[in-house]
Amino acid sequence: MLLETWLAFFAACWIISLSPGAGAIASMSCGLQHGFVRGYWNALGLQLGLIMQIAVIAAGVGAILAASATAFQVIKWFGVVYLLYLAVKQWRALPTDISEEADGRPVGKASTLVLRGFLVNVSNPKALVFMLAVLPQFIDPHAPLLAQYLTIGATMVAVDMIVMAGYTGLAAKVLRLLRTPRQQRRMNRTFAGLFVGAATLLATLRRVPA
What we know:
This protein has 8 helices and no strands. By secondary structure, it is mainly alpha-helical. The longest helix is centred in the N-terminal third of the chain and has 37 residues, at 22-58.
């Protein structure tokens, strides 16, 4: 991949990652509930989902999924249901004691948070279709494809990890300001509403005819 092409892709990665979506909402939600260090496991799961989507596209399966109405609908509605499930969990999350004497944050298993992030990304057909449309623009068909996809994958993951660290850390800082159960409930319900909004947007997604 030429340096000029990589720089253009690098800039595109920042725009894509900074755009608010289900991954950003999930990262902020985990930062709010678990703090930065524990909540960042969710971001690692997001990257695993991203890597799988890039691998699917590199293998040529992405084009098949994008062209299959059935596969598209199955992935889409799985994503909708999962985001609604996260909304319910967020709505029902109990306030925590965040005084200096208390730990103040639910521990949460690292594996559970990784799986949560993975499912959020891998069940988003919009991201798959978007990458299927965008990534080929930066691929030279006459050069070795594996090296190019490895470069693309490493760049996207590195940028997204930085951005999701920002979202997670920002929410973790906000938690320190939520001293009362009432404030925490309001914040939890705000994020629940954001998950519902993301699910609604995903439900309205239509496959572009071939």
